[in-house]
Amino acid sequence: MLLEKKLEDLLGPTIESMGFELWAVEYVPAGRHSTLRVYADKEGGITVDDCADISYQIGSVLDVEDPIQGAYHLEVSSPGLDRVLNKPSHFQRYIGKDVRVRTAVAVLGRKRINGTMTQANDEGIVVEVDGESFEIPYDLIEKANLVVEI
Fold first, then answer.
1. What's the pTM value of the predicted model, to 2 decimals?
2. What residues pair up with 98 in beta bridges, in sequence order?
3. In a 10 Å sphere around its CB, with 0-12 CB exposed, 13-18 middle and 19+ buried, how is residue 109 labelled?
4. How high is the pLDDT of residue 24?
């Protein structure tokens, strides 16, 4: 996680100067097949050409700063419809939407909580499932995604 935070700090200003929002950074180490995934977004979504432009710009920053040891593949994409939520601002943006949350320890007997997020603040979220409210602190969340509405 420390590397991903460092990469967010390094790449965020470049991406934001281009008119995009840095949504998340994910580094998956796998030797020569490691992958650095950068998710960016903007109002109305981003295009393949936007991803290519971002990739070109941040590729230059990564070449100069060289924050990752060894070879890796750089991927730039949209966070998608089922986007990962991992910052308080992400959760706050989607209050009232359905989410899928996996926790590190059980909350009211459950580690997987799928329902409507009714609250989000700086400490955590509240998800309602069948009339029951689950208060989930951010530090217990292993993974959270927006549920795709069809």
1. 0.84
2. 116
3. exposed
4. 94
The helix-helix angle for 2-17 and 48-65 (nearest 10°) equals 120
The closest alpha carbon to 120, from 149, 145, 87, belongs to 87
Give the containing element (helix H, strand E) for 27. Answer: strand 21-28
The domains located in the chain, with CATH, are 2-77 (3.30.300.70), 88-146 (2.30.30.100)
DSSP 8-state secondary structure symbol assigned to residue 70: S
In which band, very low, low, confident or very high, does the pLDDT at 2 lie, cut at 50, 70 and 90?
confident
The number of C-alpha atoms within 13 Å of 80 and in the hemisphere containing its C-beta is 12
Does position 21 have pLDDT exceeding 70, yes or no? yes
Task: For strands 73-77 and 35-41, give the pairing.
Answer: parallel
CA 121-124-127 angle, 5° bins: 100
Max Cα distance, the chain (Å)? 53
Going by DSSP bridges, is the β-strand pair 21-28/35-41 parallel, antiparallel, or unpaired?
A: antiparallel
Q: What is the share, in percent, of the chain residues with pLDDT greater than 70? A: 99
